[in-house]
C-alpha cells in the first residue's frame, strides 16, 4: 500500500493504472461554439508549431478514459484570422489521450486567445468548449470530461448535443 501511494504521488498521470488516478472528474464547462465552426475538418494532429495542447478524454461518471473520441478543433492563426489551416479532427488514443501541435492563436475582436474544441463519442453527451492559452505559455494540458449520455444534467446547462452525431467518424 505504501508503495502504491508513493507511486501515485510521483508518477506522471499517464503511467498510473486507471483505478489509481484520482483527478477531478467535474465535467468540462460548456463554452460558446461561435460563428466559425465548420464540420469535416481534416484528420491531423499538427496544424502549426509553438503550442502543444494535450490531455485525456474522460467520463465524469468514474474518471475512466474514453478512447476513440472524435475531437474537432478550430482556431485563429497567429494573426487573429480564422483559416482552413487551423482546423483539425483528431481521435483520442487507447488511453483516452489526445495531442495537438499548433500555433499560439492570435486574439480577435477583444477576445482573449482561445482554441475551440468539440468532442463527440458514442455513450456520452457532445461537448463544445474552449481552451484559453495563457500568455507566454508554449503548452498546456486540458482534459475533456464528458457526461454520460443518460445523465440529463448536461442538457440543462446548454450542451449542444444536437450539433454532433455521437459515434460518427469522418
Ligand atoms: Fe473564436
TrEMBL record:
Region (Disordered): 148-170
InterPro entries recorded: Intradiol_dOase_C, Intradiol_dOase_core, Intradiol_RC_Dioxygenase
Top-level division of the source organism's lineage: Bacteria
All residue ranges annotated as the Intradiol ring-cleavage dioxygenases domain in the record: 44-138
The keyword Oxidoreductase is annotated on this UniProt entry: yes
Keyword set, alphabetical order: Dioxygenase, Oxidoreductase
UniProt key word Oxidoreductase: yes
Chain segments annotated as transmembrane: none
Family: Belongs to the intradiol ring-cleavage dioxygenase family.
Descriptive protein name: Intradiol ring-cleavage dioxygenases domain-containing protein
Lineage per the UniProt record: Bacteria, Pseudomonadati, Thermodesulfobacteriota, Desulfuromonadia, Geobacterales
Amino acid at each position: 500500500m505504501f508503495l502504491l501511494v508513493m507511486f501515485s504521488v510521483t508518477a506522471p498521470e499517464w503511467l498510473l493504472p486507471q483505478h489509481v488516478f484520482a483527478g477531478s472528474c467535474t465535467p468540462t464547462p460548456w463554452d460558446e461554439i461561435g460563428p466559425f465552426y465548420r464540420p469535416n475538418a481534416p484528420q491531423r494532429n499538427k496544424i502549426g508549431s509553438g503550442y502543444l495542447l494535450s490531455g485525456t478524454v474522460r467520463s465524469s461518471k468514474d474518471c475512466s478514459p474514453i478512447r476513440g473520441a472524435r475531437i474537432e478543433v478550430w482556431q485563429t492563426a497567429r494573426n487573429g484570422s480564422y483559416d482552413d489551416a487551423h482546423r483539425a479532427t483528431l481521435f483520442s488514443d487507447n488511453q483516452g489521450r489526445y495531442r495537438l501541435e499548433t500555433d499560439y492563436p492570435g486574439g480577435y475582436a477583444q477576445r482573449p486567445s482561445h482554441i475551440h474544441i468539440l468532442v463527440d463519442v458514442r455513450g456520452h453527451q457532445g461537448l463544445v468548449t474552449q481552451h484559453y492559452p495563457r500568455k507566454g505559455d508554449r503548452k498546456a494540458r486540458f482534459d475533456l470530461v464528458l457526461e454520460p449520455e443518460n445523465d440529463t444534467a448536461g442538457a440543462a446547462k446548454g450542451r449542444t448535443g444536437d450539433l454532433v452525431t455521437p459515434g460518427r467518424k469522418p
